[in-house]
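Incident review: delayed structure delivery

Summary: a single-chain prediction request sat in the queue longer than the usual turnaround. Root cause was a stuck worker, restarted by the on-call engineer. No data loss occurred. The affected request and its eventual output are reproduced below so the record is complete for anyone auditing the incident later.

Affected input:
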Amino acid sequence: MTLATISTTAAEAASPTKPVTIVLVHGAFVDASGWKAVYDILTGDGYEVLIVQNPTITLEGDVAATKRVIAGATRPVLLVGHSYGGAVITEAGVDPKVKSLAYIAAFAPDVGESVFELATRAVPGESGPPLLPPNDGFIIVDPVKFPTSFAPDVDPAITRFMAAAQVPWGLGAVQPKLTVAAWRNKPASFMLTTDDRMVSPVTQRFMATRANANLVEIKSSHAVMLSHPRDVALFLEKTAAAIK
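Output delivered after worker restart:
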């Protein structure tokens, strides 16, 4: 085998073969690196996968960042949001290149509704995530409680680092009310994490039902893309396959 043949084979392996582009949008307190295991599986299966790196300072800025990534897609888009990223895709998903939405342990606000309203929605028997009071316009998760709240089913060495490296979440992302809701006009799927201590499973079910989403449940913490990457990838591939 010649060097030219090896190069051609590598290029063919790296070239997407699926007819859908999957765009991944991360949530609050983390960055896009959490998608790596899911990215590796999806690209290995032939998908073009694009990653959004949200500043999570303002909802408007995160929607703009997502739309820039969507513009680079070479195929119809499955737009995926985890946690707060669900609010981002709900606004950005009105882009005509987006054919379907996938929410993973995510917020799916309606028009005139904020993430803050959904996050503070009363759920009997639940105390909510261990967020510290806002400081200079930003919120973080209590670093001591982060590992057991955000991802208790992930290696503690990883979650301790995540707690120390968490990205502050701007009130400008939490408080704005959405002006559009893409799930009202486009098909949606929802992966509900039943052991979630950040976004209540009860609230997740309410949002998924309201959006008339195809609902899949998994016994997982909030960080399902870290603890169950193959299940997440399969969920996304099935959703992508349904796009016409």
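Verification: The domain at 18-129+168-241 is CATH 3.40.50.1820 (Rossmann fold).
Action items: add queue-age alerting; document worker restart procedure.
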